[in-house]
Amino acid sequence: MSSKTDTQLYLICLLAFLCLSVESEAQLRMGFYRTSCGMAEFIVKDEVRKGFIRDKGVAPGLVRLHFHDCFVRFYNIGCDGSVLIDSTPSNKAEKDSPANNPSLRGFEVIDKAKARLQAVCKGVVSCADIVAFAARDSVEITGGFGYDVPAGRRDGRISLSSEASANLPPPTFTVDQLTQFFSNKGLTQDEMVTLSGAHTIGRSHCSSFINRLYNFSGTSRQDPTLDSRYAARLKTMCPEGSTDPNQVVPMNPSSPSITDEDYYVDVLRNRGLFTSDQTLLTDTATANQVRQNARNPFLWKTKFASAMVKMGQLCVITGDAGEIRANCRVINS
Q1: CA nearest 294: which of 272, 316, 264?
Q2: Is 68 annotated in the active site?
Q3: pLDDT digits (tens, 9 = 90+) for 24-75
Q4: N or C, fewer C-beta in 10 Å, the chain?
Q5: How many CA atoms lie within 13 A of 272 on its CB side?
């Protein structure tokens, strides 16, 4: 291994350690807004409920929004609401990265919650905390276990498209790449498999997996690990050569709006939509975890709630750092 590679790996480990050290001292706590804005979590939950009634796709969108907020800017800042910031003529923001646009959604729910919170307790509740609350409420409204969210995050002031592209795992990752990626974020392999279960709800654009249908590994044929009947169904929804950016399919066809163990059942049947889903069966440890989660939904939902809490606390801004944005889309002037 080259000295350059050794140095890079050392820096990754050091940064992850420092980030985890910061996490242990972060001023996040349950009931953070109990005295300063007692209705905060209720207001967010109410807006998630309203959004879900209008469009069931809002819930998985909000869960994904939290993932993408926490994973980007990780070694400096994570879970800081930077994914909400709009681009400007001089800066292309995270939300407009190819990794996020056009797939991210749920922004309007955050906007409505923020507007109501500003009306009752101006300048108190951060956009980062709203995203964390909304993700929890989305898991719960779709059938997952609710969980307490430690709050007190502050909002970041930087949002760069390039950082989103560099810090979000693509759907083509192998199990080894996923394990290393999550490890760099301070998350274990078991937590990686657990959090992959978020693919039990929501949809995907065809462009994220179409290579598995028509040109897998440059062979001009479909991925041999993909169930043939499932592949045939996907081909009807994602025709070869189509350039329609709006073509989408459910990630878990049997229950796309329910947080359940069917994601793992599908992976065991070779019906994982992405390479990064199906690859979980290529490693003995992760394959065992997939089987366990498929057999024991109560255990998986419990682990998923715990993993979401842990992810939401990594490298947050607290105290007097950052800001409390008045508008989640715009940095305070």
Answers
A1: 264
A2: yes
A3: 345 899 999 999 999 999 999 999 999 999 999 999 999 999 999 999 865 5
A4: C
A5: 25
